[in-house]
């Protein structure tokens, strides 16, 4: 009987265990996690804080009954301290225990990056990664009037809406000159900045928090020499891969600090696999390693790692960093390379942008949608796309993602066969129209 141990129980850990069971019905599968909850959606945390989801329990996606039915043993609040040859050493309830394995899957995820800002250890300085983190923020909302968020990535902006829903004053401070700097070009980012300001968020771009002020707890922040009062600070400054255990047992890391794996999700140590936020992935455009930090990627990697740890030969082909989020009444999506990132990577690119409608313009309830496509000028192939609109954004990003993976050209996208019905879609899809504009530029 094959013994498989999974360390970590986020989406990568959960699907590693499920996939391993599907591959080998007779395997003994054990999961160790230092959290006290079964797998839950971290992406849903801001929506509980904002009151759109009633309780944190609704975010838990792993059912004890289902796990029991699949004969997957899960030990919560169990901290792995070492791996010795073919056994895992962990601490639980004050005791040190050991479990043997034939295959090991590391799915330890990521942890919040905390910049070295004076005052970061004051009371009411928070990060958001776990349910417990979110509970602390929600408790603070009961007495706070103004909260400063450091960082204008996805979590920072989702939290800005959540806190505004709670009736709080919100200030977002971002070092970069734009919001969502990793997934949007400046022209698209400015649309979101305007949305935030119109929704009552105080937005400081190109700005640095120099100090968090206060004696015992937060009283304010100093931004570029100017004092701003606030009752709490949330550090939404990104995450880093959790690789301390991997390093300890000699697993090779990549250039970006994540675990290096091959296409089979195997690490440099025989019998040890890895998946999720702790792992570097291959970018499907550049071919280089990057850190997606996305639940969708963790899910796919977990399925591959679990299957192969149980004797399979599945391949993880890579990722594009496809992302979608909603800020107030605007949905934002992105995949592949932005114009700025493509140029940094040495590509000669042309881009096209079109503002369109999501349904026939005469049909009630239509919403605007803006599509921006990025093409490699040398061969006309699509390498990136950004979509902003009131609806129908996610599936358009998915379509662009598939187009990139299929190496489609502007000409092929412009001539794609699309569907039409007045209450559902317009006669011309904005992706096709944007591709037509790009094609004209390419033919000049």
Task: Provide structural commentary.
26% of the residues lie in helices and 27% in strands. It is an alpha/beta fold and 444 residues long. The radius of gyration is 23 Å and the shape is globular. The protein starts with a strand and ends with a helix. It has three domains: 3-111 and 239-309, FAD/NAD(P)-binding domain; 114-235, FAD/NAD(P)-binding domain; 329-442, FAD/NAD(P)-binding domain. The model has no long low-confidence stretch (mean pLDDT 97).
Features of this protein?
444 residues; FAD/NAD(P)-binding domain; globular; alpha/beta; five-stranded parallel beta sheet; single chain; 26% helix; 27% strand; 25 strands; 3 domains
Topology:
Blueprint (H helix, E strand, L loop, with lengths): L2 E5 L3 H13 L4 E5 L12 H5 L14 H6 L2 E4 L2 E7 L2 E6 L2 E6 L2 E4 L3 E3 L12 E2 L4 H11 L4 E5 L3 H12 L3 E5 L12 H13 L2 E4 L4 E5 L6 E4 L2 E4 L2 E4 L3 E3 L2 H5 L23 E3 L6 E2 L6 E2 L4 H15 L13 E5 L2 E7 L2 H6 L4 E9 L10 E9 L5 E8 L4 H12 L4 H5 L15 H13 L2
Parallel strand pairs: 1-2, 1-7, 2-3, 7-18, 9-16, 10-11, 10-16, 11-12
Antiparallel strand pairs: 4-5, 5-6, 8-17, 13-14, 14-15, 19-20, 21-22, 22-25, 23-24, 24-25
Helix pairs in contact: 1-8
CATH architecture group name of the largest domain = 3-Layer(bba) Sandwich
CATH topology of the largest domain: FAD/NAD(P)-binding domain
Radius of gyration: 23 Å
Number of helices: 12
CATH superfamily of the largest domain: FAD/NAD(P)-binding domain
Q: Strand-residue fraction?
A: 25-35%
Helix content: 25-40%
Low-confidence runs: none
> What characteristic shape results from the CA principal axes?
globular
Top CATH class of the largest domain: Alpha Beta
Strand order of the largest sheet: 3-2-1-7-18
Structural domain tally: 3
Number of strands: 25
Distance, first to last CA? 64 Å
The biggest sheet, with number of strands, parallel, antiparallel or mixed sense and barrel status, is: 5 strands, parallel
pLDDT averaged residue by residue: 97
**Helical/strand content category:** alpha/beta
